[in-house]
Amino acid sequence: MAGKILVTGGMGYIGSHTVVELQQNGYQAVILDNLSNSKPGMLDLITQITGIKPEFINLDMQERDGLEVFFREHHDLEGVIHFAAYKAVGESVENPLMYYRNNLGSLINMLACMTGSRAAKHLVFSSSCTVYGQPEVLPVSENAPVKPAMSPYGNTKQISEEIIEDTCQASKKFSAISLRYFNPIGAHESGLLGELPLGVPNNLVPFITQTAIGKRKQLTVFGNDYDTPDGTCIRDYIHVSDLARAHVVALERMLKKQNKESHEIFNLGTGRGYSVLEAVNAFEKTTGVKLNWKFSDRRPGDVEKVWADTGKANKVLGWKAERGLEEMMATAWKWEVNLNEGLMK
Ligand code: NAD
Ligand code: UFG
Fold this sequence. Notes:
Elements: E1 4-8, H1 13-24, E2 28-33, H2 42-50, E3 55-58, H3 64-73, E4 77-82, H4 89-94, H5 96-116, E5 122-128, H6 152-170, E6 175-181, E7 183-185, H7 204-213, E8 219-222, E9 234-235, E10 237-239, H8 240-255, E11 263-268, E12 274-275, H9 276-287, E13 293-296, H10 311-317, H11 325-340
Parallel strand pairs: 1-2, 1-4, 2-3, 4-5, 5-6, 6-11, 7-10, 8-13
Antiparallel strand pairs: 9-12
The structure holds nicotinamide-adenine-dinucleotide and uridine-5'-diphosphate-4-deoxy-4-fluoro-alpha-D-galactose (UFG).
Uridine-5'-diphosphate-4-deoxy-4-fluoro-alpha-D-galactose (UFG) binds at residues 87, 89, 128-130, 181-183, 202-204, 207, 219-222, 233, 235, 276, 299, 302.
């Protein structure tokens, strides 16, 4: 069996898919999560898919003492994949300190533990294409300038990348890969894992599936006057299982000492942009379910169009997204139907 890997936030949306991917590649995944945005039932669902129950520790990473005890007890960790963070853009505008405290505090505590311990010298970090703002050149590559953040949440990702860079510079044995996700959507092919938005979803696809199942009356498409072919915003949607696989590839790059720099950055997208209306049409075509939707004004803070230059990830990492928009929609729908039938109760 390959080594033991810590997955912080491993009960969440992307983390749970990554735990599955790790286990299916022979790794022993250890999950650390405080369940602030997930449910204990995720553990059984992971176990149902892989047949392996991962070790789970319920801990708030802001608690430095608890984290130190965890690292002392897990001195044989080979690496860490760090997902634990808050992620709601609007909430971060209303309560910035909550975001800086959790997203930066957790990261700093963890880096202190990692650099202070004998083990776990390799980190994979969840960053975001939000660091590019509205790029001047599309598709956007990793060399594009990082723009002033449009929200405290986005700022935590920029600052986190800088903290990681400085830590790599200061500690010779330490290495990290920051992965800038474009728009992760979809669910595990089994329909047993997916996104669990608490309350009213902010993101497009959970709102689409909840409208289709009848939990929401109507989907609002924000803005039809953008400078795009159909007037709606364009995003690079990527299937969560493709994203999960990239984390294992990134980790192995460091474990095999193939990384060229101590802190490397990669875009994770498909390289193809779709408009909001194309996403709505893909959902309807794939599932056969008609959506009730209307246009409204633009949502403040939305970037008009962004999609990834995936050349570096394809060539250097040797990773490529495989699943298309219809598979993303089909799996998101399967998950929503399962949730509606009481999967997580
Ligand atoms: P998620 O909310 O589903 O998962 C995050 C998990 O971290 C949750 O299970 C939550 O309980 C846990 N957590 C939060 N704070 C914690 C703390 N202090 N201690 C322990 N556990 C804690 O989110 P996700 O969509 O899976 O996102 C994972 C990561 O990817 C986040 O860092 C997020 O910012 C980043 N990201 C997400 C997206 C996206 O669209 N989903 C896009 C770009 C980047
Ligand atoms: N949209 C709607 N109606 C909705 C929800 C969204 O029309 O009910 C539109 C948005 O206006 C946008 C597109 O659908 O044009 C995608 O919106 P999402 O909220 O799904 O995604 P964003 O691109 O706004 O943001 C997401 C994450 C951020 C992350 C960013 C880049 O929510 O955390 O991707 O990774 F920073």
